[in-house]
Amino acid sequence: MIIRVMTYNVHSCIGLSKKDSLPQINNLFEVYKPSIVGLNEVEKMSPRTLFVDQAKKLAQNWFPYYVFGPAIKIGPFGFFGNAILSKFPIIAWECIKLHSKIEFRACIKARIQLPGTELTVVVTHLGLNKEERVGQIETLAGLIRGERTPVILMGDFNAFTDELRPLEGLVRDLGVNSGPTFPADNPTARIDYILVSENIVDYSLEVINSDASDHLPVLATLEV
Q1: CB-neighbour burial class of residue 139 (10 A; exposed 0-12, middle 13-18, buried 19+)
Q2: Endonuclease/exonuclease/phosphatase domain: from which residue to which, for each copy (predicted)?
């Protein structure tokens, strides 16, 4: 079946105007109609984003299923982390901490039920330190190695393609010929990726222009 998959670091849903960008992101979902979305830098019940459950808010109009995986605690009961939004049932999932010394990082690994098949989706946000990313990428490789279902690995890797070599043979980079994704107002670096296993057919990938975050969203059309 054909699905559209998006990865987006939403920068706590604060756009380039420094204002709440939840409506803008919802509009992107309406226009581009992704089936599954991986989000980074999502906040839940954080005082700095007015205690909004951002993943729930972004899911409510378009996605019957969503999960939020915390990476960092903010305030007395707030969190900052990753999320998966899906039009299909999420039948199992876990939030996995990644080895971090400077700033805590995590990923979500989920099993999603598509009509007639299952799909493994991993959404991650890697660290700013290159040495830390080596171990974090090794952890990701271990999470998808041996998976029998089709695999999508996506997120903000804070890395250039040379650092992704440990993932070769497990997933392939769909955006080799696509444009940069960061910073959104003058993009020069491609650090947001959609990587897929060999049993997924890719039809297209595009970097979408938007000022709803400091990153640009990436959208892929796939056959699973």
Answers
A1: middle
A2: 6-215
pLDDT tens readout for residues 41-71: 999 999 989 999 999 999 999 999 999 999 9
Name the domain count of the chain: 1
How far CA 75 is from CA of 50, 79, 107, in Å, comes to 12, 8, 21
Strands 78-86 and 117-125: unpaired
Whichever domain contains 46, its CATH number is 3.60.10.10
In 3D, which of 101, 85, 98, 149 has the Cα closest to residue 124?
Answer: 98
Domain holding 159, by residue range, is: 2-223
Per-residue pLDDT tens over the stretch 109-150: 999 999 999 999 999 999 999 999 999 999 999 999 999 999
Task: In whole angstroms, give the CA distance from residue 159 to residue 130.
Answer: 8
pLDDT greater than 90 at residue 76:
no
